[in-house]
Write a structure and sequence with these properties.
Strand order of the largest sheet: 3-2-1-4-7-6-5
Order of helices and strands: HEEEHHEHHHEEEHHH
Number of domains: 1
Structural class: alpha/beta
Number of helices: 9
Helix content: 25-40%
Largest sheet: 7 strands, mixed
Shape: globular
Protein name: DUF429 domain-containing protein
Distance between the termini: 22 Å
Number of strands: 7
Length: 268
């Protein structure tokens, strides 16, 4: 049963840019805020969150700053926020062990199963038709450390693999927009945001959200993350959750089940 407080929950998607992405035309931080009805609140934002991360002194201040970026001002007390983050929020156990002077992994073969490059969750996605990036080899270490740093400061508690908490104010986890694009469910949800862009559309993704202020791929990825945050709260069975073998310290990518191929090796 959902409480009145549940109905106030807000859902934020954060597409993470590098630490110093201020002048990067292609990739910066982007935020989209949705309410329980999946309405876009305020205006999607794009820029660099580094200064905000540095200046926020508490989880509440951080959450309010994210909402402020999008011009969202909740009436009354700050509602619970679920934050879906598009960047790796952990490194593999084998990589952590290697860099801390521990033992080496076994034989290294193909890239997709390299335990230094890919976590358990990424290897899971490879087996189901996706090609996730590696924080070690794909030049996204800046984004990964930025997301992990924010978690360590504002959502340091983790009682379930892949989910971090900042008290009752913030729940955060990792999402992956590319895993959403093959999902019929996500495509259905995106019909709410189909608009006519100001310039000719290259593909169907260019038709998503222009009149809502979603005028860049970073913002579109943030919208997809916000929808995953909404699914996590409202339709959790639509997502793949960690299985019993998931290393707790590696994190987990919450992806739509219907966007993955052949899920016979994980319980429904």
């Amino acid at each position: 049963m959902h409480t009145d407080k549940d109905s106030e929950t807000l859902f934020i998607g954060w597409d993470v840019g590098g630490w110093n992405c201020d002048n990067n035309a292609n990739s910066r931080d982007a935020l989209v805020v949705l309410d329980r009805g999946r309405n876009v609140l305020g205006r999607p934002w794009r820029g660099n969150l580094r200064a905000i991360i540095n200046e926020a002194g508490s989880t509440q201040a951080w959450v309010r700053a994210l909402l402020d970026c999008c011009g969202v001002e909740p009436a009354g007390d700050l509602p619970p926020v679920i934050l879906a983050i598009d960047t790796p929020l952990g490194f593999s156990q084998a990589f952590q062990q290697l860099v801390s002077g521990g033992s080496a992994a076994g034989a290294i073969n193909e890239s997709a199963t390299n335990p230094y490059l890919f976590r358990y969750t990424e290897q899971f996605l490879f087996r189901h038709g996706l090609r996730p990036l590696s924080p070690v080899k794909d030049m996204i270490g800046s984004q990964a450390t930025k997301g992990m740093h924010a978690l360590a400061r504002f959502a340091p508690e983790s009682t379930v693999a892949g989910v971090w908490l900042g008290g009752s104010e913030l729940t955060a986890f990792e999402a992956y927009p590319s895993a959403c694009k093959p999902s019929p469910l996500v495509r259905k949800l995106l019909k709410d945001y189909r608009t006519t862009p100001a310039k000719p559309a290259v593909d169907e993704w260019d038709m998503v959200g222009y009149e809502f202020g979603i005028d860049h791929e970073d913002k579109r990825d943030a919208l997809l993350c916000a929808l995953v945050a909404w699914l996590f709260h409202s339709e959790p069975d639509a997502l793949c959750f960690p299985d019993a073998n998931t290393p707790a310290g590696e994190g987990w990518i919450f992806a739509p089940r219907d966007g993955l191929r052949d899920l016979t090796d994980i319980e429904a």
